[in-house]
Amino acid sequence: MAVEVDSDNLARVINALVSYELDALVCSLPSHVLLLTGYEPVIGNAVAVFTQRGGVHLLVPEDEAEMAAETSYANQLTFRPRSLNAITDSNQSVALPLLQLLKKLGLERSQLGLEMYGLQHPASYLSQHRYGDSLQSLIADEFRSIRLLSADQLLQRLCAVKTKPQIDGLRISCDLAGMAFKQAARSWQIGMTEPEVANVFQSAYGRVTAERNISRTQAQFFCMSGENAGKANAAFAMTRQRVIRQGDTVLIHCNSNVNGYWTGITRTYIRGERSLKHRQMVDAIANARSAGLDAIAPGVAASEVDMAARTLLTNRGFGDLYTHATGHGVGFGPANSNAFPRIHPKSPDVLEAGMTFTLQPAIYLGDLGGMRHCDVVAVTGTGVDILTDFQSPETDR
Fold first, then answer.
1. What CATH number does the domain located at 7-159 have?
2. pTM above 0.90, yes or no
């Protein structure tokens, strides 16, 4: 069955190409191939070519063709990345079909946009092919009249605003993760180690996706408890060997994706009676979340959303213990603090309908523990759609 064309995505990419005076885009990073064609490559050696006239083309390895056809509306051309006749690599295998495609599209004297600088992208597989500057060299050597330009800024901005089909793809990822959270929240126990608790959530996710026959998915759950939860403001999550004790704050963070659409979700749990300090923290984070959500609308400065949440925490006496930005773009990648829109005190970004990002008010008390509640939200025409609206801070147990 043919995949329905995402006409909104076609229109906005064409408009971006016109605005940046580019005749076409040539991209190979998996998140950008997903953006342009609807398919996230597995190994990272597929190439997308998107022209200003609206042609969407996908050069895909033969062994990924069936998967690509399930989600992509692009014109698909296959190539063989390896053969028993000779030892080759993807750079060599894609060269001829790519050059032939560019000639067929009449791009020999055009302005092409390419990925040129190091950007943060998710890993779609345990190892990935990266073309680096080899595609630039290949095209430049063959077509002396082509002008190659960086499309990094254009792509970054296109990734920030998503169409309805793209948001629906992210919504599926969020829904499945939410089901796993709700199942696992009832199952872990005091006395387990952090890896054991993380595995409870990981296993629940596996059951949820298996029951729904989801094949292209991956997830990583992290558990940080007690003093480790108090250090969870680091730029990375880390599960250690600590044993969970009565009264600990237990942060569970999840990055998951389905068909390339990534989540970033955190929930905090406490087994047993909550202390006065814990109740104050829960109340402050719940109200900071509400304040942040209330501030979200098209045309609002991203810094205002950060200020709304941060001011609430400051007024409750926790401002100095909230040591990171309130959020960042999410969807085409899981954890990039520089992804638009940046929900940061100094952010110059302005919210637009279709933007998706994390909203993550938090309090970190060092050895005394920490709490964070991280949602994935989408800006609508009038306000906000919470894609992870389960287990509010008040009901996390």
1. 3.40.350.10
2. yes
Instruction: Locate 296 and state its tokens.
Output: 């979200």
Residue 43 sits at φ, ψ, to 5 deg, of: -85, -20
Taking the mean position of all CA atoms in its chain, how far away is CA 17? 23
Query: What is the tens place of the pLDDT at every residue in 146-197?
Result: 999 999 999 999 999 999 999 999 999 999 999 999 999 999 999 999 999 9
Number of other CB atoms surrounding residue 87 within 10 Å: 8
Query: Is residue 136 within 8 Å of 116, Cβ to Cβ?
Result: yes
- Domain covering 164-386 in this structure, CATH number: 3.90.230.10
pLDDT for residue 120 is more than 70:
yes
- Parse the chain into domains and list their residue ranges: 7-159, 164-386
Find out whether 378 and 167 touch, Cβ atoms under 8 Å. yes
How wide is the angle at C-alpha 10 spanned by C-alphas 215 and 256, nearest 5°? 30
pLDDT for res 395? 58
> Two tokens at 285?
């984070």
pLDDT of residue 118: 67
The model's pLDDT over 220-236, given as tens digits with 9 standing for 90+, comes to 999 999 999 999 998 78
